[in-house]
Structures are given as structure tokens and as C-alpha cells.
Amino acid sequence: MQNMQDKLIDGFDKSREFVLRHKKASICVGVVLLALLIWVTVSRFYTYTDYTIKYEMTMEDSDGTAYESFHNNVVKYNQDGAFLIGKNGELIWNEAFDMASPDFDKCGDYVALYDRGGTKVYVMNDKGRKGVVNTSKPILRACVADNGSVAALMNQRDVSYLELRDIEGELIASGELHIENSGIPVDIAFSEDGKKLSVSTVSVKSGMLETVIYFYNFSSSGQKREDNLVGAYSFTEMVMPQLKYMSNGNLVAFGDGEIAVFNDSFEPKLKKEIFPKGNIDSIFYNEDNFGYVGPEVTEDGRNVKKMYVFGKSGWKKLDKEIDDAYTTVYMLSNDDVVFLTDKTAVIHGISGVKKFEYEFENDIVKILEGNGGRDYIFVQDGVTREVRIR
């Protein structure tokens, strides 16, 4: 009996030791998790004011050199050609060309580099050139789809033309826009799947300014419609100079006093209208979100500058007062909004937190997203740096 009692006591002691040991471990794990949670929470609401350099690359750039992000790499282009620069500054590809006014568009796995006023579009992916599209008239605006096809708005002798060509340059569809009937085209947008094209035109009718957005569909169903035209929508006393297809197929039209969202249907319908309380000074967007900056008067009579961000269906995500000076504003693919002057940079997260603020000694040309939440690429005169803000 005593032996049995000793075994029970021994078993109880071992069980108690086990529980205490694992309780201590659980407490340690809990403390670590709590510390991690505090760190994540603080970092989300913290404004970084400095950075460390992960790598830098020195390159002499000619006047007019521009930079864009592509698959976490950097596309650098100017009149003489384009380069794709990867991590640690390695050159992935370069493409020589001669363009008077080079411009850029991207979608999915493709980049389009074209000459405004010229007739060539270079279609590139992350390996290099995939095709060269030659248009029949001088290009005003060109867009690329996720399959590499190209839509071009062209002009010659007061007549505007539209062309769709595949990545090999073969003509898919074409059409004409006459000023007396359709107005003056000011922008086009091409859907990711390469099946939908929208054109914004401006005209004066009976002394009133009018914008008309035309919707074209190049699917098998759209081919049954005359000239592939499946819809049109007009705005009186309004200019809509910029169009953008979002990743869900909705079209966003940016006006001087309104932002309109059209749904992704065969015959697009107006889904949402956004009217600012003041003016729209600047717009920004990526594939999933869009927004604007403008002045307005608060309910208590204060004159403020506000930034608004909306999702791809037009629902408001952010409404924030800002006091940042800027000459350029744009949205990165990671949803950060960048405000730049010649020597200052401010980055706002889509949550409304000011993530970064800094004044540079040398001019800052562009900030692009890096591979991590705090990693960015700073482009300055002659120097490109991958950095981590801190």
C-alpha cells in the first residue's frame, strides 16, 4: 500500500513539474507573441524618417530619362532606348531605339514602349523584346494588354484612328473617329484581357462642352455589333481626360469635377459617380485602387487639403487631411501613395498612415516599390538605390 502511495505521489510531482514547465513555456510564447503584436502595431502607425542603403548603382542619365517599376525591377527609358534593371543593379535587358517622345504602358507580363508622334511600339517582357508593332499613322496614345496585344490612338490630318494589333503586329481591328461626328479623342483605355477598349472624346455642341465615352468590345459577341461599338455615355459641361481599366474590368473615368465608375458588362453601365467637395487637383491609381487630392472646406470652416482613396468598384477606403507639399503624386502597385517635390518625399499607406518623410540633399526623381514592406527604390540624379526605410 505504501509503495502504491509513493508511486502516486511521485506521479503527482512529475505531473506538476510537467505542467509548470509547459506553463512557463506558454508564458514565454505569449510574451513573444505580445511583443510581436506590439511591434507590428507600432510599425503600422510609425513614420520613418531615415533609410539604410541595401545597394546603389551609379549611371549617367540623359535629360528626359524616365523610370517605372515592372515585376519588382526598374524600367529606365529615354530617347535612345530602354533598360530593365534588376536586384543589386544587374542589367536584365536593354533595347536600343530612336524616339523623339518615348512613352510607357504596362499590363501583366508586358511593357509597351512607344514613340508619341511615331509609328513603333516595342512590346517587352521580363526576358526582353517579344514583338515590334508598326502602326499605320502617328501615335497619340498606346496601351498594352496582358496578352501582349496593343491598342493605339492615332491622328493624321484632323482625323483620329484606332488600331488593335496582336503581339506580332497583325491587325485585329481598326476604325476612324471624325471630329465633326465623334469629337476630339483625349484618351483611350485597354482592358487587361485585350477585348475591351474605351475612348474619351470632347466636343462643343450648341455652345456646351460635352464628353462622350465610347465602349468597344472585340470578343465574339462584340463582333456582331457595328464597328464593335457596344455603348456610349455622355457628360455635359465636363472633360474626362483620363481613363483606366481596373483589375476587375471596371472602367474609371477621371474628370475635372467628377470621377465615374462603369461596370464590367457587355454594355457598360454607370455604376458610381464620385463628386468631390472641392476641386480635383491630382489623381493617382494602380490596378486595384484609385484616388485624388484636392482642397475642400470642412464643416467648421477650415480650408484643408484632402486625400481620398477608393477601391476598384468605387467604394471609399480612405479620407484623410494632409499637409504635404508636392509637385508629383502617384500610387505604387503596393497601394502606397507617393508625394514628391524636387528634394522631399512623403509616402502614405492606404491605411492612412504616413509611412515615410524625408528631405534629400540631391534631387529625388522617382520612388518605386521594392521587395518588402519597408523596401523601396530611390532614383536620384545619376544614382539608383534600393533602400530600407527606418
Offer a quick outline of the entry.
This protein has 390 residues and is mainly beta. It is 12% helix and 52% strand. The relative contact order is 0.10.
Explained architecture:
There is one protein chain. The protein has 390 residues and is mainly beta. The protein is built from two helices and 32 strands. The protein has helices spanning 2-44, 179-182; strands at residues 51-58, 66-70, 73-78, 81-85, 91-96, 102-107, 110-115, 120-125, 128-134, 139-144, 150-156, 159-165, 171-178, 184-190, 196-205, 208-217, 229-236, 242-245, 251-254, 259-262, 270-274, 282-285, 289-297, 303-311, 316-322, 328-331, 337-340, 344-348, 354-359, 364-369, 375-380, 383-389. A four-stranded antiparallel sheet has the order 1-32-31-30, with no helix packed on it. It has a four-stranded antiparallel sheet with strand order 2-3-4-5, with no helix packed on it. It has a four-stranded antiparallel sheet with strand order 6-7-8-9, with no helix packed on it.
